[in-house]
Amino acid sequence: MANIAKKVSWSGRGDDRGERTPLLNGDEEVKYNRQDIVRSRPKEIPHNEKLLSLKFESLDYDNSENQLFLEEERRMSHMGFRCLEIRRWVICGLIGFLTGLIACMIDIAVEKLAGYKYFAVKLNIEKYTELGGLSISLILWAVLNSAFVMFGAIAVAFVEPIAAGSGIPQIKCFLNGVKIPRVVRLKTLVIKVFGVICSVAGGLAVGKEGPMIHSGAVVAAGVSQGRSTSLKKDFKIFEYFRRDTEKRDFVSAGAAAGVSAAFGAPVGGVLFSLEEGASFWNQMLTWRIFFASMVSTFTLNFFLSIYHGKPGELSSPGLINFGRFDSDIVQYNLYEIPLFIIMGALGGVLGALFNIINYWLTIFRIRYIHRPCLQVMEAMLVAAVTATVSFAMIYFSNDCQPLGQDNTEEYPLQLFCADGEYNSMATAFFNTPERSVRSLFHNPPGTYNPVTLGVFTLAYFFLAVWTYGLTVSAGVFIPSLLIGAAWGRLFGILLSFIASSQSIWADPGKYALIGAAAQLGGIVRMTLSLTVILVEATGNVTYGFPIMLVLMTAKIVGDYFIEGLYDIHIKLQSVPFLHWDAPPTSHWLTAREVMSSPVTCLNRVEKVGRIVDVLSNTSTIHNGFPVVAHTSENDEPGIICGLILRSQLIVLLKHKVFVERASSRLSQRKLQLKDFRDAYPRFPPIQSIHVSQDERECMMDLTEFMNPTPYTVPQETSLPRVFKLFRALGLRHLVVVDNENRVVGLVTRKDLARYHVGKDGLEELHLAQT
Amino acid sequence: MANIAKKVSWSGRGDDRGERTPLLNGDEEVKYNRQDIVRSRPKEIPHNEKLLSLKFESLDYDNSENQLFLEEERRMSHMGFRCLEIRRWVICGLIGFLTGLIACMIDIAVEKLAGYKYFAVKLNIEKYTELGGLSISLILWAVLNSAFVMFGAIAVAFVEPIAAGSGIPQIKCFLNGVKIPRVVRLKTLVIKVFGVICSVAGGLAVGKEGPMIHSGAVVAAGVSQGRSTSLKKDFKIFEYFRRDTEKRDFVSAGAAAGVSAAFGAPVGGVLFSLEEGASFWNQMLTWRIFFASMVSTFTLNFFLSIYHGKPGELSSPGLINFGRFDSDIVQYNLYEIPLFIIMGALGGVLGALFNIINYWLTIFRIRYIHRPCLQVMEAMLVAAVTATVSFAMIYFSNDCQPLGQDNTEEYPLQLFCADGEYNSMATAFFNTPERSVRSLFHNPPGTYNPVTLGVFTLAYFFLAVWTYGLTVSAGVFIPSLLIGAAWGRLFGILLSFIASSQSIWADPGKYALIGAAAQLGGIVRMTLSLTVILVEATGNVTYGFPIMLVLMTAKIVGDYFIEGLYDIHIKLQSVPFLHWDAPPTSHWLTAREVMSSPVTCLNRVEKVGRIVDVLSNTSTIHNGFPVVAHTSENDEPGIICGLILRSQLIVLLKHKVFVERASSRLSQRKLQLKDFRDAYPRFPPIQSIHVSQDERECMMDLTEFMNPTPYTVPQETSLPRVFKLFRALGLRHLVVVDNENRVVGLVTRKDLARYHVGKDGLEELHLAQT
């Protein structure tokens, strides 16, 4: 049953700590200890949100300013820094370009594949409408859908489980500073792109927008490092950027470029990145992010304009095309605002319902559907059910609409309608969801039958709930918008019944937009960035104020019931996620209470054997060690003089930087920052480094490699103050010292993340080894 | 000559340190010292940008978490925090509402006054066109203009000099953390509003948008404190928010609301606030800022819709109305992008030229035009010259255009044109600048004669340069846009000459927009927020990418020559402004080199006499004092145990919180946080507090009032690291300690701000007492 965690958690099979190479440094006792701990792990992992996993490591947004680093910085001229800056811009441009290209590829592939599918099914239905025996069409449709989804699900479930879902929660965590294993690898990108094409073409109630954000992030992480570890290819460029600080900045840009490509919303992309990720706002960084976003939209538009045969026409928006609201038609009036607020509240309630059902579903999946083949089968089942429900609804609806002159429907299905008419329910299903949203926004009044809309909303709502969390790459933005647009338009139609036809209520398209915003806001609970994204995607700023009101209302109402969908999934993975502020009532706590203590400290000149032992001790896997002037024997804490990271120690051990070898090292070259960068980010485990018994007696001088000025706080510092320092600077380790600067504890991310506000005040999460 | 600094510097007559009440604590020696220093000040104040003024104090964005504060926070329940949060939202709503109201008032007043003026002048001109003797019209016009401007200039120069200019540099400094005296007072607001109405109605080449940002900030500072010190009215509400931390947050919201009202750009407003001010991005704060922006636009639109007789039609944008670009017409093509970039470069060059001329003009003004009456006369002169130039250009131009059916010009002037035609040059001048911008953007091709445009650009450019920096309330946004729109349209017309009429180049309105963006970008050098403001103000997202490109180019080209206009004025005032990052080549410097040392420390229990002496010592006006365990006699630094502010000490002295009086204090009430809040932000000077000779022998226990956990850094910390900590947390004092936690120095804003990158690497500014 311990398998559960392995299969469903984001880290997928990334939990390679179990399969590590055996300890080579001959420390049998430690090895024993470790196995004990492995055995003593709870068999059934209680996957609930009251746990905080120790599995996730932190990113380090604070440069380790050791001597090597300072020397390099000091060597650099002003021109050198300018070149670096230019390189950053070039990278951002590349990120934007590649993200746009990927978006373009996905868009064209989905359109082609879905087109073939709908065409085949349409032909088949038309054939059997006359002959009778439409069940054959149903089967064809279901099989086609399942086949597409099967390919996607197999790729995800068997090759790279982290590529499942929209990827937004994972990117959110990454930007927050949590290292999610494998999340920004090339393989993940490939599977993600393939998966999303399959699942959208497979007719699932999903969108291709969320995955774009993940794709952008992967592109950014790859490009900015100038190499691909998966492909074992190092271009020897951009080596300066091989550290968490820079990488995270670029990943922000990548996520923004993804949003920008997905929604044609460059500003929305920037705001998304900032809202979800950044803590310290830096103007230059923001401009670069903006640049990446702009290039991404531009690239996408450029290539799509060529694809659509109008090369050079760059005015169209991103992947999603909601169509522009014409500014003459769309106006709203003061007395409509209460209506908007009601819709916002409705969106909040429906969104919360969505989240609650999905929460239970996810728990169920974690418990029972953890084998890859089961996951694939579930995905195929959902695909088949989606096809069946769609078919049933088309079959039983008799909502016929006249085929207009300026027919925007690509696959009008006559079915049982009179000649010159088409089945409007079929339109809703015989389209990629984006097109359906657009129709709901823009089709003239009277296009849709209220009953059709009601039934459609209901069916699509449950399909979408069921679909989110499947082992396929898929986003939740578009289904949410579609559900909202459907009930929003229904709302608008009902309003127009009670009003005269000449009134401002006559156009239900406006209400479809507001409904879409309300539903999406109720599910994901974003406000600022979502407002901007919707404004940009609809190309009209008039609705800014109503959309903001609606999103705010949806968030307030929704938060009363349950958290946002992404936060639920983050919590279910027990990620140590840091929110914006410390819980408000946490002034009671001080650093003394939250810190981990005692701390394993190292001496400035330390015995190699001790370092190896400390690193190999798996009962307490620390990643940072305060360096003290001299640890006295009688367990009295030493005076802090630096901080060194596990990764640095590993590189030092690997290169045998021992004091005793200093003389022979004169002939060798000196250890450089480059050696650390080459190892980044996949530092080898300690077990892979062979240290002989002789070497264990050597000494290592850490002075040059440790960060001599780590941030410290006194023990009496209140939790909110510690939190602010930690969050604002993106720290990984914060040393707690006493009056005389002696190390007494260490605060890490999990120490801060475990406090949260529960029903009855401040609660503490439990730490778990999952 | 010492008057120079007094009259022209932002602090105006706020430099009341000289007029302080005499020292009452009988310390003659100190008093003597002080006068010495006053005498020893340099006679001629060398107002240049290589100085850093010690006059400006810092805001403290770091809460002083002393025992009183912690006790209050700990007493508060979770519900209490929620109420606080709700109150914050209410305040932001109020800020938005009031800012919108003020914007509405300004708009209506300007429109009415300018309307009357143009009407009178038009009648007069029409009368004298037939009779001959147009010089009388010219005189009427010049006198009217000068009269309006005179009132505005007198109010600004004699009542509140800080209300001069756009206020954006001042707000930028405030958000950066510099306390600009009197900048957020009610009196400033009143003068600002009055001044801007006068100067716009007076026909100067100014806009009303910049001052809106300042007005919003003042409203925010006032509302959030729940009282007006000027009116001596305390509403006893929002007392919790009476500290720099909260106030600065609200001022951000106010500035955003101002932008939002001015340009109808709520998102742009948020981004402006963030780009100019915030360092730590907090999601909740951003949402509140956004809310204030939205409410502001909404209020403005609502009241303007009533004023224009279409109540409830909320779809119009802010104060500025560029008119919407229709999405069908506005398209751009790939091959236009190089043209845009050329325009951006041109904008950068012209912007730099603008800034250079204005820089020399400002230096000239500082040297020679520092008496208020001279300032008023200069303003009147500019007003008269503006009228004369306008008149001459109208008179000598013979650019007649047919009066169309759908005539958008409110004051068409026939002058020497044939019947049914009007003088198009007159239109450009007989309009508030906003209307002219709109005409340049939207009038159909052929409306403007290229020669007219060229001459207009040239004349308006120099008028605008001359006008910015006058002692009137006025913004530079609109004149910049107008100049840019004029040459942009000219550029477009020239393009259409070389292309066929059917091509995409046929519409010069598009180029007017791009030109406007380029010119404004070249002058103020904003990018992200300006892009969004322009996109929102034109109501069209299509041009997002070109506008961004153009702004980037303009910034890069402009930065090559000189800084942005606001930065020039900030530098000329010697404000210790902190940029986003430390200078790149500053890794050479460590805290040891930049810190101020030795530091005046206080004991935990300190003699009142010493505290009074320390506070009264004007040779080194410190605002924060490290509290140490026990300062030994032999000048060895003590171990840090806290930090106390001058303002806190003053309140303690005022309330006589002496150890010896503790017994009698039992009958009195204990000193509370409220006492500090009541004194905020205008703490009395030390000289106003009477301390008897007996009391000087008493002791004060600072334990309860000091911040026991100030942030500290070791001496070896590099400047960029210190800078990052300081900037990210918005600190005012950063204590530098040695290995054993003993105080060795103090880093303040001026210590960091004085390093900057000059032509030959890192330069250090001089500190001056001005």
From TrEMBL, chains A, B:
| Molecular-function annotations in GO | chloride channel activity; chloride:proton antiporter activity
SMART domains documented for this protein: CBS
Q: Where is this region: Disordered?
A: 1-26
> Is the keyword GTP-binding assigned to this protein?
no
Q: Does this UniProt record's set of keywords contain Transmembrane?
A: yes
- What membrane topology does this protein have? Multi-pass membrane protein
State where it is primarily located.
membrane
What family is reported?
Answer: Belongs to the chloride channel (TC 2.A.49) family.
What is this protein identified as? Chloride channel protein
The record lists the organism as Sinocyclocheilus anshuiensis
